[in-house]
Amino acid sequence: MLAGAGTVLAAPALAQAPAGAIRIGEINSYTAQPAFLLPYRNGWTLALEQVNAAGGINGRRLETLHRDDGGKPEDAVRLAGELANAEKVALLAGGFLSNIGLAISDYANQNRMLYVASEPLTDALVWSRGNRYTFRLRASTYMQSAMLVEQAAKLPAKRWACVAPNYEYGQSAVRWFKELLTRHRPDVSFVAEQFPALGRIDAGATVQALAAANPEAIFNVTFGADLTNFVRQGLTRGLFEQRRVVSLLTGEPEYLDPLQDEAPENWIVTGYPWEQVNTPEHAAFRDAYRKRWNDHPRLGSVVGHDTVMAIAAMLRKATAVESEAMVDAMAGLRFGSVFGPVEFRAIDHQSTMGAFVGRTVLKNGRGTMADWHYADGKDYLPPDETVRQLRPQS
Asked: Which of 33, 86, 264, 284 has its CA 20 to 30 A from that of 255?
């Protein structure tokens, strides 16, 4: 069981780090977002064990001090200070919610400390509020919206509605989807928007408001328990009948599995068809994960694993375990991820990790993805001249 905010989540042996160990301070919303972050933690642990079994970094072990921010940006910043000053970690990592990722990023910039952001999807993290010390692994809201727009633009629908959680991630995703779809299809219009509070959606009222606008298609950005409630109320009230839904993250098993046979069908989604991806890199990861945890991986498992692997690759490249040297090593870093080669772009510190795009189907009483393809992140990022406008400090 995970402890409360501020509690060390690492194994007891890590509290007494042997001389020479390289410590990573990892902060995440474990108790607030367990569906994604418990698999993430398992993937992180697997990668840490793999790196150390292979000799660590030039003979030095990697160790992690985990902290739970409880979903609160102010706690994340306080914990970052404790990890940096009391625990003397070499760098910070983690983050799930976009507002928390931005808070840790601001701390890292003010204190000149490397922050490898695992999951926060807001584009502000690498563009409008990007800084020298922050790098992000996961494909951003812009990237995943662009992947979905590529499919949405092919639909005959002209009248669209949007529903998203009312914080940075949801607002960013809706903003980019609207802008990019309108660019591809000037004939579309957006007739309704609903922004329920994260974790507190009134699904019945939200569904009713969307239906009243009579859209031909819906862009959904809800996830977790909000998504479950939205889907159930939407099915009950007929919202999805004769309407196409394009949905960010919904194809991830973290969010499909809880719905079981209620999982929506024929939604266009980004996600992770873990059982169907048979590249050598992914098959090796999937086998190792199942052997270690007696469970199948989720998308969080991949993100946790590859965050560690990116940090390990950076440390092998860096001239010293010191902030400026590590930041220099992160810029342009290439490493082999579970999904294939990934690069952290020097211009904006965004990685080129992609996402799987397909449609949802029911199979054996649970939701999964069909007709999917892997969208390489490098193909869904704006050109350098646009990035320079979005990220003035670049």
From this structure: 284
| Positions of E strands within 69-144 | 91-94, 115-117, 134-136
* β-bridge partners, 162: 193, 219
- For the residues of 249-297, what is the DSSP string, one character each? EEESHHHHGGGGGG--SS-EEEE--TTT---HHHHHHHHHHHHHHSS--
Residue 176 and residue 108 in contact, taking contact as beta carbons nearer than 8 Å: no
Name the residue among 126, 133, 146 with its Cα closest to residue 329.
Answer: 133
Which positions ≥6 away from 330 have C-beta within 8 Å?
A: 114, 116, 135, 314, 344, 349
Read off the amino acid at residue 247.
S
**Residue of 152, 199, 193, 188 lying closest to 175 (CA atoms):** 193
**Which is nearest to 97 in space by CA: 169, 5, 7?**
169
Measured in whole angstroms, the distance separating CA 129 from the mean position of its chain's CA atoms is 18
For 304-332, b/e burial (b = at least 16 CB within 10 A) is bbbbbbbbbbbbebbeebebebbbbbbee
Residue that is written with structure tokens 């079981």 in the block: 260
Picking from 114, 75, 119, 59, the residue whose alpha carbon sits closest to that of residue 94 is 119
Dihedral angle over CA of 192, 195, 199, 205, nearest 10: -40
Q: Residue 12, SS3?
A: helix
Contact between 78 and 84 under an 8 Å Cβ cutoff? The reply is: no
Are 347 and 394 contacting, i.e. CB atoms less than 8 angstroms apart? yes
Q: What is the mean pLDDT of each run of 10 residues along the chain (394 residues)?
A: 38 44 98 96 98 96 98 98 98 96 98 98 96 98 98 98 96 97 98 97 97 98 97 97 97 96 97 98 98 98 98 97 98 98 98 98 95 98 94 75
